[in-house]
User: What shape does this take?
Amino acid sequence: MVGPVLLIFLAMVVALTVMGQPLWCACGSWAPWSDDIHSAHNSQHLVDPYFFTHILHGVLFYAVIRLLWPRMALARRFWLALGLEALWELFENSDMVVERFRQTTVSLHYHGDSIANSVGDLLACAAGFGAAASLPVWGSVALVLVTELMLYVWIKDSLFLVIWALIFPEKPQ
Assistant: This one.
């Protein structure tokens, strides 16, 4: 089980390196956490508030994959979820999506994720998948709702709002 997981992490790290993403925040601080979503430090440390949206990715990937392929072994569903999250990290760090985030979300200073942040996001997805695999359906629903509410109260943003802004950007006045 460890082999495919390590391969997914390694492939993502190599691809992000080739894309030119920095390993860590250029600020020089090795603090693992950055909580200022309006600064250039956002998405540059291992963990930031958006880490929690990636936990929700794991919960949602678990649900969708289980619905589509109910007989697939849990380990294979896990690998597929991590593969999807790794692909999201590559897509999220493409020039097109970085610019879209800067234009349509609260992340005005966003320049893409550091490699460390992407690794943290992949770990968050894995944790969300594990939570969904062990919780009853109502527990997963509660986790999503509580996390969305917590993020909105805390940072005035959430996974739902990020997705909404990416799909339906406001037109400049």
